[in-house]
Design brief:
It is built from four helices and three strands. It is mostly helical. The N and C termini lie far apart (38 Å).
């Protein structure tokens, strides 16, 4: 693929991915405000943006074998842990941006768990096995990720047990 086309598709993938997530959050807000049809519209268009992003990723050859896909996840999580979030967090602290300090701390702590999970999953998949996980609990406040029961209190943000979503 030619460089300009590849860059354009990568930019389009990023933009469509962000739109998908943004519209999901907009839908949640519309639900909170009792605007159920608006929320439905946000979610529908969000899905279209997800389709667009997936089409771009496929053309970019960004979906490979599960083992390769897991390695992509490991590489991404490791970059976030070692480079991205420490710099973002330090910048937020230096500029006294408390919301950004909090959100980058939450993300960094959760990403460490995600990287470990992906490493274990890659080992299983590379042995020809599926990964074994029990109930997965995600804190809806900070993204803390754990297997099994939700804790009474989130170890990262202190949110109560009812803030965890089970997968």
């Amino acid at each position: 693929m030619r460089v300009m086309t590849e860059k354009a598709l990568n930019d389009a993938f990023a933009g469509e991915s962000m739109a998908h997530m943004r519209y999901q959050h907009f839908a949640d807000k519309a639900d909170e405000e009792g605007l159920n049809e608006m929320a439905r519209m946000f979610r529908a268009i969000s899905y279209a943006e997800l389709v667009h992003a997936g089409n771009h990723l496929e053309v970019l050859d960004g979906i490979r074998s599960t083992s390769d896909n897991i390695q992509t996840c490991i590489d991404g999580e490791t970059f976030e842990i070692d480079e991205m979030y420490p710099v973002y967090h330090a910048t937020a602290k230096q500029q006294d941006e408390s919301g950004a300090v909090r959100s980058t701390h939450y993300a960094l702590e959760a990403e460490k768990i995600h990287a470990d999970w992906y490493k274990k999953a890659k080992e299983a998949v590379d042995r020809g096995e599926d990964v074994e996980v029990g109930d997965i609990q995600i804190c809806s406040v900070c993204g803390h990720t754990r297997e099994g029961e939700a804790p009474d209190k989130c170890p990262i943000c202190g949110a109560s047990k009812d803030k965890f979503r089970q997968f």
